[in-house]
Specification:
Elements lengths: L2 H23 L4 H14 L1 H13 L3 H27 L2 E3 L7 H11 L2 H6 L15 H25 L4 H31 L2 H27 L9 E3 L13
Antiparallel strand pairs: 1-2
């Protein structure tokens, strides 16, 4: 990574870190943030499961096992965030129950400037689990997981000191630890398939893409175009299970 990219990485990461910390700390915006995390973590499970099946079919049992573990972790992460929402008497909106007109516009509404910039040049077809280039998957996901481990730990630290927030803090720290492990196996997976020089080139490429994506995201926020659509609705609170399962 060249010096300019490194500087822009610090600028973009700092802006997003500040925004994320403010959003998770504020009790009014926290439910929407948690819902976004739940959707993202749980939503990746089918993709990772299909990738695991593909790796097994190609004879890479080591990678298949790692991907299966990754999918299981993401399932648990989704449950952590769903539980945190439940403690706030909230739950993720069932988008399938929305009117057809809203459903038809959903893909456009959810289109993210971050991921548009991150995967610029790739079509949705090229990113499907049955055809995605392994290098593209490993490089892009390695950067996301590595940074997510730091982001979750940082957000956990800014949560207020109350019982429900302490439980969420433990859960987010557990998620951060898992994300570090995911980044570790993905880096090893790249080293198993490429030379050290090729791995570094791939990591640098996706780091640069992440910088561009962060700047696009930050620019969107500064222009007042950040995500404002609610992802949550009121749900039934439970008195019986007040602790998050983080083991």
């Amino acid at each position: 990574m060249n010096f300019l990219t490194y500087v822009m990485h610090l600028v973009g990461s700092g802006a997003v870190a500040y925004y994320s910390a403010a959003q998770i700390r504020d009790s009014k915006t926290r439910p929407n943030v948690l819902a976004g995390f739940q959707l993202a973590e749980s939503g990746s499970v089918p993709f990772l499961t299909k990738l695991s099946d593909r790796a097994a079919a190609e004879g890479d049992t080591w990678l298949a096992e790692k991907l299966t573990k990754h999918a299981a972790d993401e399932t648990r992460h989704g449950q952590i965030f769903a539980h945190a929402l439940k403690q706030l008497n909230k739950q993720v909106i069932d988008f399938k129950s929305l009117p057809q007109e809203t459903e038809e516009n959903k893909s456009q509404q959810r289109r993210s400037p971050f991921f548009a910039a991150y995967f610029e040049g790739y079509t949705q077809e090229q990113l499907k689990p049955d055809v995605i280039d392994w290098g593209v998957f490993m490089g892009s996901t390695y950067i996301l997981e590595l940074d997510a481990s730091k982001d979750f730990a940082r957000m956990a630290k800014v949560l207020p000191d109350d019982p429900k927030s302490r439980n969420l803090k433990l859960g987010m720290l557990s998620v951060a630890k898992d994300e570090t492990g995911h980044a570790g196996y993905l880096y090893e997976a790249m080293m198993r398939r490429m030379s050290a020089v090729e791995v570094q080139k791939l990591v640098d490429e996706w780091r640069t893409r992440k910088v561009n994506a962060l700047l696009a995201f930050a620019g969107n926020i500064l222009q007042g175009k950040g995500q404002t659509r609610s992802l949550v609705q009121d749900g039934a609170a439970s008195e019986s299970d007040s602790e998050l399962i983080v083991a």
